[in-house]
Amino acid sequence: MSDLETRQLRYFVAVAEELHFGRAAEQLAMAQPPLSRAIRDLERQLGVALFARTTRQVALTPAGETLLTDARIALDAVAAASRRARHAGQPEPALRLTLKADFDGGLLPLMLGAYDLTPVELVLGGPWDLVPALHDGRADVALVAMAFDDRGLDSEDLITEPRMVALPAADPLAARTTIALADLTGRRLPNGSGAETGNLAPPPPGSPALRDLSQLFNLVEVGSLVWFLPAWVARQHPRPNIAYRPVPDLPPATLSVVWPAASRSPAVAAFVRVAKAVAGPAAEDATLLSRLAER
Q1: At 140, phi and psi to the nearest 5?
Q2: Are 155 and 281 in contact (CB under 8 A)?
Q3: What is the pTM assigned to this prediction?
Q4: Structural domain harbouring 80
Q5: At 136, which CATH number?
Q6: For residues 64 and 108, is the Cβ–Cβ distance under 8 A?
Q7: Axis crossing angle, helix 62-88 with helix 6-18, rounded to the nearest 10
Q8: Does any domain span residue 136?
C-alpha cells in the first residue's frame, strides 16, 4: 500500500464533514465526479469502505470515523510544519508571542524591555485561541492565564493571584470585603451560567465579551452580568462603576509562559528565562496580595 497524500486526506475530510459529495465538491472548488472517483480510489488503496452510501444519504463507517480523526491531526501537522518552515526561513525571524491583550499581568513591557535576542511579533487573540496557535505553528510561545491541555507543551508558571468578581458598584454585595459563590445566586456570567456555579468556561462563540473587554465591562456596569477575572486584570482596569471583590471559593488564576515541547529554539528558551526573571518580584507581590485577600 502506498502512502497517503495530503490531497487525498483533504478530499476525504471535506466529504466526511459535509456528508454530501456535492457540497464537498463546492467547498473544494472542483467538480463532483472527480471527487467521487478520488474517494473510491482511496477506499481501494486502503482496502476498506470509508462511507456507507445510499441514494438519500452518506454516512461514515467505523473505518471512516477513525480516519477522520487521524486525517485532521495529520493535515493540521502539515499546515503547522509549513508555517514554521516559512517563518524560520525568513532573513530575521521574529519570536511570535501570542497572548490576550491586558492579560499579561503587567509583565509584557518588562519582558520586551529585557529580551533582546530577536524581534518580537505579538499575536493577539482570545484566551481560547492561544494554545491552538502554538500547535498550528502561528506562534512560538504564549502567555496563558487559564487552564489548558498541556499535551505536547511545556510551561512555567509566572504569577498566581486570587480570582475576583466584577460586579456593579451599586450592587449590595459590593459592600462586602469578600464574596462567596452562594452569594451570587441570581446573577449571570458571560457564558450564560448562573454565577453561583463558579463556571469558568468561555462565553459562547461570537459573543463580543469573549474578545472585547470594554463591552464586557459595560455589561457589568449596567447590571447585565458579573464576571470572574484575575486580580491583575482588575488592577489594570479600575472603573468607578465596577467593584472588584475576592471570591475565595474559586481557584486562583495563574499566568504561565507556554511553548511547544518539541521546540529547540534558542529564542524561545531565552524568552522563557526572561519571563521567569521578570515575574520573580511580581510573584512575590502576588503572594502577598493573595494572603491579604484570604484575611
Answers
A1: -100, -30
A2: no
A3: 0.70
A4: 6-87
A5: 3.40.190.10
A6: no
A7: 130
A8: yes
Backbone angles phi, psi at 165, to 5 degrees: -110, 135
pLDDT tens digit sequence for 216-269: 899 999 999 999 999 999 999 999 999 999 999 999 999 999 999 989 999 999
Which set of grid coordinates corresponds to residue 1? 500500500
